[in-house]
């Protein structure tokens, strides 16, 4: 089950869903629109190593926008800091971003109950496209979770992406030690 606009509002009032900054006008029928934060990042090395800590370089999107190029993975970040304490949040693209050939996540759209942070976006594009800080980039939808949660993401000792970051965060796969 996906939360409706009214249920999302109730959860916001209860504090079980936090979206900051929040504006009522971005609440859709059953989703909330999130926006592109001003920082992007790319990996320093062209060849990534799934066992290594691959470092990234951050840069700011200038006022006139930034042209994304196909063949490069960009890490972006939502402007919105979110907390979801009782539901499973999912990050989805928007039809309008999809129609520009922009993907905002590479395979990972699901969040965890207890996730408290901005969302890192794994951005790629089909053809060169200029993007702007603050543009609508995706939407959050909220699923009801069945059963009790034993370990909330923000209480998990080894959660990799919890915290409060205003810049995109690189892959922490290296912490899996496989
Ligand atoms: N595009 C995405 C998808 C998810 N997340 C956040 C919300 C999730 O609650 C958190 C962890 O996502 P996963 O469980 O998919 O990631 P891992 O399994 O790699 O990390 P962990 O071991 O910390 O669970 O990252 C994000 O910022 N950007």
From TrEMBL:
Pfam families found in the cross-reference section: DCD
GO terms assigned for molecular function: dCTP deaminase activity
Single GO BP term: nucleobase-containing small molecule interconversion
SUPFAM superfamilies associated with the record: dUTPase-like
EC number, as in UniProt: 3.5.4.13
UniProt-listed PANTHER family: DCTP DEAMINASE (PTHR42680)
Name of the protein in its database record: dCTP deaminase
Keywords from the named record: Hydrolase, Nucleotide metabolism
NCBIfam families given in the database record: dCTP_deam
Native species: Chitinophaga filiformis
Classification via CDD domains: trimeric_dUTPase
């Amino acid at each position: 089950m996906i939360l409706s606009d009214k249920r999302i509002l109730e959860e916001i009032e209860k504090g079980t869903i936090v979206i900051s900054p929040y504006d009522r006008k971005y609440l859709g029928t059953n989703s909330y629109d999130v926006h592109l934060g001003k920082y992007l990042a790319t990996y320093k090395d062209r060849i990534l190593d799934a066992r290594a800590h691959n470092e990234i370089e951050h840069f700011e999107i200038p006022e006139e926008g930034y042209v994304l190029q196909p063949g490069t993975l960009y890490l972006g970040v939502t402007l919105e800091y979110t907390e979801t304490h009782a539901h499973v949040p999912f990050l989805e693209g928007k039809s309008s971003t999809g129609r520009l050939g922009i993907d905002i996540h590479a395979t990972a759209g699901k969040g965890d109950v207890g996730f408290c942070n901005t969302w890192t976006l794994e951005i790629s594009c089909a053809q060169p496209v200029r993007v702007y800080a603050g543009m609508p980039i995706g939407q959050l939808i909220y699923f009801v979770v069945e059963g009790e949660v034993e370990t909330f993401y923000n209480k998990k000792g080894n959660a990799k992406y919890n915290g409060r970051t205003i810049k995109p965060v690189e892959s922490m796969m290296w912490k899996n030690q496989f």
